[in-house]
Amino acid sequence: MEQKIYFEQYEINNLRTTYGRTISEADIVFHAGHTGDFFPHHMDEVFCAQQDFKKRIAHGTMTFSIGIGLTATLLNPVAMTYGYDKLRFPCPVFIGDTIHTEVEIMSKRVHDKRPGYGFVVEACRVINQDKKVVLYCEHILLVEIEEMNNDTI
Amino acid sequence: MEQKIYFEQYEINNLRTTYGRTISEADIVFHAGHTGDFFPHHMDEVFCAQQDFKKRIAHGTMTFSIGIGLTATLLNPVAMTYGYDKLRFPCPVFIGDTIHTEVEIMSKRVHDKRPGYGFVVEACRVINQDKKVVLYCEHILLVEIEEMNNDTI
Amino acid sequence: MEQKIYFEQYEINNLRTTYGRTISEADIVFHAGHTGDFFPHHMDEVFCAQQDFKKRIAHGTMTFSIGIGLTATLLNPVAMTYGYDKLRFPCPVFIGDTIHTEVEIMSKRVHDKRPGYGFVVEACRVINQDKKVVLYCEHILLVEIEEMNNDTI
Amino acid sequence: MEQKIYFEQYEINNLRTTYGRTISEADIVFHAGHTGDFFPHHMDEVFCAQQDFKKRIAHGTMTFSIGIGLTATLLNPVAMTYGYDKLRFPCPVFIGDTIHTEVEIMSKRVHDKRPGYGFVVEACRVINQDKKVVLYCEHILLVEIEEMNNDTI
Amino acid sequence: MEQKIYFEQYEINNLRTTYGRTISEADIVFHAGHTGDFFPHHMDEVFCAQQDFKKRIAHGTMTFSIGIGLTATLLNPVAMTYGYDKLRFPCPVFIGDTIHTEVEIMSKRVHDKRPGYGFVVEACRVINQDKKVVLYCEHILLVEIEEMNNDTI
Amino acid sequence: MEQKIYFEQYEINNLRTTYGRTISEADIVFHAGHTGDFFPHHMDEVFCAQQDFKKRIAHGTMTFSIGIGLTATLLNPVAMTYGYDKLRFPCPVFIGDTIHTEVEIMSKRVHDKRPGYGFVVEACRVINQDKKVVLYCEHILLVEIEEMNNDTI
């Protein structure tokens, strides 16, 4: 699934929504194993029973990785990830929660120093089954400007 | 390994360095499988041979997850992650690269609205075997202020 | 565990039964990650609650892979898999189901064009804890004919 | 990524091609672990060095699972998998091979006994970097007929 | 986290306790897949319901691997594992149990034949949420003697 | 594959040999992730290049888990694992090594305190492609004595 979407074609406020995914205990075990973060907030039910949330919580890096992963359905060959800003975790994710991601085009601007490219900023909100935002971030894309790139080709 | 480190005790410019970790093809296969991002930049050698980098590159979310995971060796029960800012990927990570993370205390300030807490910002640099920074981000911690919390206890 | 079983020694209607295996949520998370199929029928409890089965269902390719994997206990060095026919999924597999596989020798015939070899067809039935067949297929083996191969040795 | 495609809309000879995926040693280790099939043809380099192919080969069930998984990019809510026929493995898959899948609409017919449904048969060919077919199968879909289903709604 | 601890510095009866970890069904599925041990005591709920423990039990090798893994938080560059003695499994580990490990310095003695080295024996007890010991073993470390090694440097 | 083998039937010096298995980088990544032991001896090629062995080495707990796992092909319902003694690691295991396990019946004796049971000790040697023993241990089985158990049934 591939589609060229140039800088000009990104429309502010355009919103897309991904499929959902239920977060399992296996996901937490995986992510601990993949990252090496075995802190008891994620891995120890007895410890967690005495904490504020009473239950094990997902790693923030996992909510980010899966939340962003859910958006990886359409490959745009004229865009690449530049970075992420304002990554926040307003609510915890628990085992059994079902999350999906909303991506909204937030702003765009021409790149000052790199001719033919512009920045597009997407607001990403990972949302659980109770419609609570569990992760927010701003995904910055570096995108080709069609007019300027077509001149060179 | 647990140690209480209060807001007062974080020292600007303090630097710590993690162990290293060699990124394997298995890590990329794992991360694709964990996130569902099977884009050919990560998974398809034939495709990658025709791209700029010539080789498969690690997912940005993986470099972030592993890079931050490497720092999870000492649990500070009076601090929690508030978020991350300015997450950037200056260089790609390839299979066989060995990365480690440097964490430097960058700034701190008392929380305006939440008495007894302050923000500590750590600059995190994930660095490869050639001393190139492959990931940069600013990790924002919310940390208890010892003086104010000890009063209440 | 290795045993040479030649074409002549396969007996029609001979039946063997494997051990059982309980299908876990982890298995579904694994298989999604291994294949890249994250369709909500497998991964999203909220979506599934509104579908006919009300629950997440296992991937067909997973029931096949595990069902056939259960039979891989005895290596026959004079046989190889030629293919599978009539692969069907009469009932869904849910998290928590326990499946085993029955393998019944169904038919055999000498290979027309390849001297010294014959086809043996095994009917494979993957069966759940309620004795329902959840997968049916016909496994076609290419097997050495002892008489003809012993002549050459 | 969801799109309703009714029986009427499937066009014979329509062909689609998936992204590619490089098969890693990790994939074979995963699949052995997921299915329990640790036969030496997949797991033991020393054994394989003395066999015809000289190298470890992928499990047939893995080539099937990944090959079909590659096609799971567009969800059609009015179709479901009925089964697979003529699953064959014309060539082995080795570690380092890059495979993709071609799906061609082969035939369709109205279901005799289930009004409002038809069968669509897709020929699936998993193809390696040398353009050799490593897996062939016929995927049978059960698809709603738009005309008849729209009448009832 | 690295600290040189020489033979002289190990104190008999010194005790350290690790964080806890809740054992999940995913862990058992992992370990079966990693080791190839799919015996029904670990994998088949229907079978287990008719056995003494009524429930699936963790592999002994898993309890050992995780129990010892929990202790791997502080790297001592002047010590290495020599072996393990008296590995026993006094109680089973079930899905949902939370285990941690206690390590107690039990004995030490100078190595007869290898000048500059001594043996330190740690009693390792893996303990569940009900304070029952589920695994016991004696971990034998080969440790540098500071005095003798400093002489040579 | 199940077979009742009673205490009386274990013959001293009886030897069985398992299939082999090539240890991959993926196995080491898995085992680190499963146990939480990310020490640089296993995970960091740059670190290892400066150590004695020059290469990453497998975790001892992994060699044990896989080495014992290779023997899990025949289930004996009248025997259970009592423990392991003298677990030693005479040689390291590197990525790419192919290991198999030899199991030799070493000794047996009637249980003093538990009528109807005896101990059988198996010497387990995990051996690499160069015929070097990489792991040795003595596996103690608790086995039913046929004569005494048949009396009660």
Describe the structure.
- By secondary structure, chain A is α+β, with helices and mostly antiparallel strands.
- Chain A has one domain: Roll (Thiol Ester Dehydrase, Chain A), CATH 3.10.129.
- The first copy, chain A, is 24% helix and 33% strand.
- In chain A, strand 4 and strand 5 form a beta hairpin.
- The radius of gyration of chain A is 18 Å and the shape is elongated.
- The two termini of chain A are 24 Å apart.
- The relative contact order of chain A is 0.24.
- The mean pLDDT of chain A is 96.
- At the A-B interface, helix 1, helix 4 and strand 3 of A face helix 1, helix 4 and strand 3 of B.
- Strand 3 of chain E pairs antiparallel with strand 3 of chain F, so a sheet runs across the interface.
